[in-house]
Amino acid sequence: GDGVGGEGGGGGEESAAEWSARVTVLAGPEGLRVHSCKLARSPFAAPEEVDSPLGAFAVGQRVEVMQEDEGYEGAWFVAEVLELQKEAVRVMYPAFAAEEGSDAKLEDTVQLRRLRPMPPPPAPAFSGSLSAGAPLEMLFEDGWWQAVLTASETAEDGKAVLVVQTVYHNQTHRIAPGEVRPCLLWHWRCDRWERAWTLGALDTHYAMLLDDEDRRVHGMDVREKKALELQARRAAKQEEVEGKRRLKEEEKEARRRAKEAEERARREAREAA
Fold it and tell me: How far is the C-alpha of 152 from the C-alpha of 134, rounded, in Å?
């Protein structure tokens, strides 16, 4: 193209050098593909231009939450949204009790970047299309865990069995084809799902979520700081005005007292004469 800010671009004085494009490209079986593209007025997006996935969620909605605690890294568990905040969401996990033997369900406050809507179901022929080394998610202990297919076998009863190895813990599992699904990436800006063909694509997507969060939080900090600075300036101005008012009143009172003292002295002088 002709670039941004050239002739016919709106008549502004901005040049192409004032803009930057942040493009992420992923490698897949069909070659290179554009993962996402972000156009910003500077290398760091202005706080006012940074949007948020918060609007994609509502109280009572069923979502999936990515786990980051040791032993659960990368696993997705179903949860229900209880409360929405700026960068945190209060959720309830229906599959887990708050305490052993309790009917109450486990609740937790998690970062917004760890949430996504319920993903679409896999195609009926998904498991049959997998080849060794393909990333996938396997159903295990009420969660979906990142894994890689290592082999396909046939059990003694003649049923197909998939042999997978978990990404974070290097554990081998033999599971039924119906207990796997593709690794999907949710692009919250356009509410679109895309399959991750490589583990590198998962890492890149997670890094982008962290970067988005950093930009949003940084933007919020800047706005809050500016608001506090404005409030402090207004308070200082008000104090200055109030101080001048008090000073004028004190000077007026001093003049009044001085005048009264002068009149009293003149009266006393006349009476003495």
Answer: 12
